[in-house]
Design a protein that fits this description.
The complex is a heterodimer. Chain A is an alpha+beta fold. In chain A, 41% of the residues lie in helices and 25% in strands. Among the domains of chain A are: 44 residues, no CATH class; 33 residues. Chain A is built from 13 helices and 16 strands. Chain A has a 16-stranded mixed beta sheet that branches. By secondary structure, chain B is mainly alpha-helical. The longest helix of chain B is centred in the N-terminal third of the chain and has 23 residues. The chains are: A alpha+beta, B mainly alpha. At the A-B interface, helix 1, helix 3, helix 4 and helix 5 of A face helix 2, helix 3, helix 4, helix 6 and helix 7 of B.
Chain lengths: 398, 191
């Protein structure tokens, strides 16, 4: 079905009109095809906009004005001799009561709409499969399968595990002693909250569709597989096994490719990403720099860095000042000279375009030339960086 | 389907077919908001939508006798609604250029200090943009987002294939996105 471009199926994908297999093939094509991805972004915005279309309330006088017209219509044909049974009258009463209730619900939902972005489809839910033990949704233990509704918590104890189907775009395995909540699921955004514990996500959706809120950052999927672990103090550890993930808290962000990891801390946000095969001394120094404010750690980082560690150094550029920034620049330039158009002065003043150009050059070093970030994913990343939800601001240190 | 709609069963429809006014009032109360919403978004004019809604229910009152249950009642009803909106548009095209009476405010007319109403602002901009779409793109969007119909149900109402519905929704969404590209900004959405 998807041997060619998939633009004609975009709305059907967003509305869940494709089969599970078709959705998967669609998402795989979108990740690989820049043309379809561009169109997908456009249609997705259209879907998001159309979802804002409210149902309106008909004015009360409509029936009053209609009645005389019906009177004229009924003047010709004989009025029904059918009398209402008591069952019909009861049904009528129930319908009228329900309509009153639904009106109240409409008012409630309208008010929620005005409150802000938490306009999740509250009826939507994700399928949960028990893997081990007795996971709970709310206070209820699930047998083999359950449904996780928006706003509900899924919790595992020391001997239970579960798997969540994230709509048709992937799945998330929930490890022991973990607590997650479904915050939102709709065609344009799926969002989980990981309060504590560990989850492993495999997502085959286009970038910027699946998010995980943790106490110290938000993980935005850019087409990938990863594990995310949150400790009892709200710190977290992200490890990417495939693709790319962006971590962000307010203006601080880290992009993490395959084979790399990144820690986050409450009040600080994401630390600097590093490759997991980096020397132990390098990683220890990075931890001191990120979370113990030890500026002297920069010297160790520069001494120990390998070409591949330009991932860390590129992020460090914006996190150090003055002489340290110059030293980081020199070290990076020794590994991979900046491309044409990228100047030392521009990098030192953190010109975003120049930093981005240099990063493009560096990516083959980070991924061994295998998995450089597709252009659309890069664009998505920057939109993610500029546009993560208001929750980020709420989570930011005061 | 909403709970109230589930209670509109064969007995109530049969009573309506017999001309029973109370049964018909139930039908009216159940569907009036959805019919009115489509009329507003199709005509872009609330007072005109009052008339269209009344005409639809007046027609329904007599035409319901012809409903044989070959399709879902809602499909049959929405077909009536769609035809009424298209008829009204044809009638108005003869009288004045389309869009001349559109009352819905556009975003540019709102003052910047009303940021706390960002979402309402978006909603109003969408309503205005919807009113400017061609009916063949607008109606599938209304049936999808106001009535919550599936592609198959929309196809049945519009008398076309599912593929055509998918294609028209695609184009409708694209046109909305292009017209409202300035809203592709987290600040507008209160983010």
């Amino acid at each position: 079905m998807f041997s060619g471009h998939v633009t004609k199926d975009i709305s059907a994908y967003c509305h869940g009109e494709l089969s599970s297999e078709e959705s998967k093939q669609f998402a795989e094509h979108i990740i690989a095809c820049a043309k379809c991805r561009t169109k997908y972004e456009e249609v997705k915005l259209g879907v998001k906009l159309a979802e804002q279309l409210p149902q309106l309330s008909a004015p009360d006088y409509l029936w009053r004005d209609l009645e005389p017209l019906l009177e004229k219509e009924t003047a010709a044909p004989a009025i029904s001799s059918v009398s209402w049974s008591w069952q019909l009258k009861a049904a009528a009463a129930v319908v009228l009561m329900l309509l009153a209730g639904l009106s109240a619900l409409l008012v409630y939902k309208t008010r929620r709409l005005e409150r802000g972005p938490e306009i999740a489809n509250e009826k939507a839910s994700w399928h949960v499969k028990r893997l081990d033990g007795a996971p709970r949704i709310g206070s209820e233990q699930i047998a083999n399968n359950g449904q996780l509704g928006v706003g509900e918590w899924l919790e595992t104890d020391g001997s239970s595990r579960a798997q969540i189907a994230v709509g048709s775009i992937g799945n998330v395995e929930i490890d022991e002693n973990t607590r997650v909540r479904l915050l939102q699921t709709d065609p344009t955004e799926h969002r989980l909250e990981l309060a504590r514990g560990k989850m492993s996500a495999r997502i085959w959706a286009p970038p910027r569709l699946f998010f995980v809120d943790t106490p110290s950052a938000v993980a935005a999927d850019l087409g990938c597989a990863y594990t995310l672990e949150v400790d009892d103090h709200g710190g977290s550890l992200l490890r990417v096994t495939s693709g790319w993930v962006a971590l962000q808290l307010k203006d601080r962000e880290s992009i993490v490719p395959t084979g790399a990891a990144c820690e986050t801390q409450p009040g600080i946000g994401p630390g600097t990403p590093y490759f997991e095969d980096a020397p132990t001394v390098f990683r220890a120094a990075l931890r001191k720099f990120d979370f113990e404010h030890d500026a002297s750690a920069v010297t160790v980082l520069l001494d120990q860095a390998r070409p591949r560690d330009t991932l860390t150094l590129w992020h460090l550029l914006a996190r150090v000042n003055g002489e340290d920034r110059e030293r980081v620049y020199e070290k990076m330039a020794a590994f991979v000279p900046p491309p044409a158009g990228v100047t030392r002065e521009g990098v030192l003043r953190l010109d975003q375009q120049m930093l981005e150009s240099w990063k493009n050059e560096l990516e083959s070093t980070w991924t061994g030339g295998r998995l450089s970030m597709p252009k659309g994913v890069k664009e998505a990343y920057f939109r993610v960086r500029n546009g993560l939800s208001r929750r980020l601001k709420d989570m930011a240190p005061k | 389907m909403m709970v109230a709609e589930q209670l509109i069963d064969g007995r109530i429809i049969e009573a309506c077919q017999q001309g029973d006014r109370a049964a018909f009032q139930l039908l009216f109360e159940t569907y009036k908001d959805k019919v009115f919403s489509i009329a507003v978004y199709s005509s872009g004019d609330r007072s005109l939508a009052d008339d269209i809604t009344q005409q639809i229910f007046l027609k329904l009152f007599t035409a319901i006798r012809q409903f044989r249950g070959d399709s879902e009642f809602t499909t049959w009803l929405y077909r009536l609604v769609v035809n009424a909106c298209l008829d009204e548009r044809r009638r108005r095209r003869r009288l004045l250029p389309w869009g001349e009476t559109v009352e819905m405010r556009k975003t540019g007319e709102r003052k910047p200090q009303e940021k706390q109403y960002a979402r309402r602002e978006v909603s109003e901009a969408v309503q205005a943009a919807i009113a400017e779409l061609k009916p063949k793109f607008r109606l599938p969007i209304l049936l999808k987002y106001i009535e919550g119909l599936s592609y198959e149900e929309i196809a049945s109402v519009m008398g076309c294939s599912k593929g055509t519905v998918a294609s028209r929704l695609n184009r409708g969404h694209s046109q909305l996105a292009k017209r409202l590209s300035h809203l592709n900004n987290p600040a507008v959405w209160g983010e």
